[in-house]
Structures are given as C-alpha cells and as structure tokens.
Write a structure and sequence with these properties.
It contains 20 helices and six strands. The chain is mainly alpha-helical and about 475 residues long. The chain has one domain. Strand 2 and strand 3 form a beta hairpin. Helix 12 crosses helix 13 and helix 19 crosses helix 20. The longest helix is centred in the middle third of the chain and has 30 residues. The chain is globular.
Length: about 475
Amino acid sequence: MPSLRRFFEIEQRGSTVGREVLGGLTIFMSMSYILFVQPVVLAKAGMNSDAVFMATCISSAAACVLMGLLANYPIALAPGMGENFFFVFTLCGVATAAGAFKLTWSEALALTTVTGGLFLLLSVVGFRSMVLNAIPDALKSGIAAGIGLFIALIGFEWGNLVTSDPVTCVKLAGLRGNHVAALTLLGLGVTVLLMAFKVRGAILVGILLTTGATVAVASAWGLPGIRPEGVLAVPKGLGETAGQFLAGYGKLLDKLLSKDWVHVLAFAFILLFMDLFDTVGTLVGVTKRAGLIVKGKLPRAERALAADAAGTVIGGALGTSTVTSYIESITGVQAGARTGLAAIVAGVCMLLALFFQPLVRMVGGGVVVGKYPWGDPILRYPMIAPALIVVGAMMLRAIRDVEWDDPTECVPAFLTMVAMPFAYSISAGIAIGFVSYAFGKLFTGRARECPLIVYIFAVLFAIQYVLVMP
C-alpha cells in the first residue's frame, strides 16, 4: 500500500486511497451509459451488438489503465458520443440517400485505427497542439453543439416523439396509444430530476428505471420486442468484430486511389479533429477542476493524449468506434479523486461490466412499433432515447463561447450547428462550417484570420459537394 501511494502521489495531491476508489466508482457510474448506448448505435451499421459491447468494455478498460499508469490523471475513457454517430451515419452512410458514399463497418474500423495511430504519433512527437489550434474556436463550438443537436434528434426519433410527415418532413407524434413516447418522456423526466438533484450516475439510473418501466408496460400491454434475458452471463461474441479492421484496409486503400479520395481524407481529418478536440477539452476541464495545472501548463499532457490514442487503436482493432476522454470524469474529481488510481478503478469496473451482457442486450433490443414497406420491423428505444436527449442538451453549452457580435464567426458556427440535424449528417455540418468560415474571412478583408488548413478543407469540401456527390 505505501508503494501504491507513492507511485500515484496520492498524499502529495491531498487525497487518500479511499477517495480514489470512491472517485473511480463515481466516474464509472457517470459514464457507464455508453455501455448501453454504444451497442445499439453501432448495430445500425450491421455490427454484432454483443461484440461491440465487449469491445467497448475492453478498450475502455485498457485506455483507463493506460491513463492511470502513464499520465496519473483521474480521467476515464470510452467510445465517444458524437464519434459513434459519425461512425454509423457518416462513415457507414446509414440512413443516407441511395448512391451516397459509404464505407463498410470493417472499412470504418480500419479508418478509425489509422487515425488513432496518427493521433498517437502526433502525441509522441508533440504536434497535437498545432493541429488543434489550427481550427477556429467558432467552428469548434459549432461542431460540438451541432453534434449535440444531431444526437438529440436521434433521441427524439428513437423515443418515438417525432414522426415523418409528407409536407413538413417531420412532426411531433401524439401520445394516444404511443407507449414508446410515454416511456421516453417518463425516462427523460426522471433523468432530468436526478441530474437536478445531483444524483451520481443520473443517466445510468435513468436508463435502468426506464428499462424497468418498459418491461412492466411490455408485460401489461404486450409490447413486441422486449425479451428479458436475465442480468449476468459469461460474455461472448467478440470474435464477430475483433480483427475485422484488417479486412477493411485494402478496400479503404482502393477508395483512396479512386475518385473517393476526397471523402477518405476529409473523414480521416474529421475523426482526428474530433478526437483531438474532445480529448484536449476534457483534459483541461478535468485537471483544472482537480488543481493539477501547473503555471498554466498541464504536466504529462502528451502521455495523456497517448493513452487516449492507444485506446482508439485498441477499440478499432476489437470492434468499436473512437475512444476518447470523458468529461464525466469531473464527477470523480468532485468526489475527491486526484490521481490515476481513480482511472484504473473505473477501468476495472468496465471489465466487470462484461458479465452484464444480458441486461445490455435487453436494453438495446428495442420495441417494435411497425414495419417498413420492405418488411423490416421499425424499432424504437425508449430505454436509450432519454439519455441521448440529455447528452445532446449537455453538448449544446459549447455555443456560449461563440462571438455572436461578429457575423464572420457566429454565422459559420450557426450553419455548422443547424446543418447537422437538418441534413442528418455530421460531415455536412462540418463542411458547411469550413466553407462559410473561409468565405466570410476571405471576402471581408480578414483572410489572415482564417488558418490555411481551413482554406484547404473548404476547397476539398466544395469539390466534394459540387463535383463528387450525386
């Protein structure tokens, strides 16, 4: 025990082993909703949900342990919200128009591991700040907020709160006979109240309570699709996705050498940027709250970034999307955690979660609300939808940093933000943001305020939408 305290500098940072363990448990409770969300989201791309769950648990645990041992920070990691939707709806082209650019999920995993490896290289050689700082703050804020709106829209759809309309495209769904919407609103209300009263793990508790209510309603009214399978079991299924990224490398290279090279480069850049933005923002926010920033600088920052990047490579190799640092780690700091021991405790919890696969499978099973014209069942997810809406709301706070009095800053941020849900595409929002930002700065005589990399990608995005896309 004394060597443990020395290694993690527990006493020097004013903490105790007990506080670190409590902090790690608190972090896990706050972020464990991803264990329920991730299999549902990636299953939309055709991936095996059991395999995704196992890959999520293992890669998260590995990244948490690396963060604790290498950087000694109380920061836990898991597949990022936003990156997972980008993986499914943009890289894999789920729900896009026929003929749109699409990757298979194995190709998307290959691209994820490539960008993770590039991120790891940038972390080792110290170039990450140059790449991150090249993106204007307005676009960073617009992208974060836009992803939040996109995730919230998915939550409304999966919660059966909105439905299609032949005139307005989408409209609010009624509650008469709409058990899924009623359950979603119940879960949303409970989750918001729990958060308002600062209950630890509010989102996770909300998911579990909504699941219980859904099972009860299914028993009373016979909702199709809900199949309780127990709680504990030996995990299985990882072989369905582990190593499949290797099969995607060849096809990804073929696309890079074809007319699709613009898409591949743009998507690789977006993945890299999103991970950089999420990680650095989380590192600064959590360590500042923990009092670990020294003279305005963050010691061992490159080690923390390397742990993050290694998690992405491991996740892609096993079968899940980009792994990144979680802002929910602040809850552990509030509970007293100050060292990497808390991150390791959270990682151990991620491994133990492997044995709750039946519960996760039931939550992600969905409720059948009808059939598509081609015969496939229409599934909705009242247990998951409230969490998506709440997470989307939390991400929207990024817009407070936008300079709303400067049209060349606020308009690109606004267009980035609203284009994502309106176009049902994260990459579309990013493309519109880059093009509009470059246009605004160039034609108002402020060209030097726009970084060169923004001009380059604005041209590439313009080529993509004018010449490449059908």
